[in-house]
Amino acid sequence: MLINLLPMSEFDFNQFLDASIANYAKEKAAAGNWRAEEAFEKSRQEFDRLLPEGRNTKGHTLYTIVVEGSEEKVGSLWVKTDWNAKEAFIYEFHVHEEKQGNGFGTEAINVLERILKDRGITGLSLHVFAHNKQAIRLYERLGFATTNINMKKLLD
């Protein structure tokens, strides 16, 4: 099974943005970074800051993950590239829940790595919430190493 990373259409971007803002707010609240009642607005502000020109923001590439030979969309991938440092950072990577566990995530990262290497990029980083054990396992299996650990204790 092969996939393609296609530049995100405006329609796909709008769907991505709505879902991503809501999901990021939920994740930040679950991680204890933001209060639930403020999380959605903070998430929206963060996306506005990071993507001021939407899918056309310089240095950012937004992909739709599509099964090769079909038009089946199985997820999305948002990458920022720092050409001077030859580094890329995955801001968001999502495989639709019903498609998870079928190798789409592994293949998407492999395709992304080939694209980045062909463009002279030598490093790829990402952030993952500590409670997302499934994603952590995937990234470790793909060769990502932990570079930082933030810890928090809630005080009663």
Please mark out the parts with pLDDT under 50 across 5 or more consecutive residues, or reply none.
Answer: none
Structure summary, number of beta strands: 5
Portion of residues in beta strands equals 15-25%
- In whole angstroms, the N-to-C terminal distance is 50 Å
Helix content: 25-40%
Care to describe what's here?
By secondary structure, this protein is an alpha+beta fold. It has helices spanning 10-30, 36-50, 104-118, 133-141; strands at residues 3-7, 60-67, 73-82, 87-95, 123-126. A 5-stranded mixed β-sheet has the order 1-2-3-4-5. A hairpin with a 5-residue loop joins β2 (60-67) and β3. The longest helix is centred in the first third of the chain and has 21 residues, at 10-30. It is globular, with a radius of gyration of 16 Å. The chain starts with a strand and ends in a 15-residue tail after the last helix. The mean pLDDT is 92.
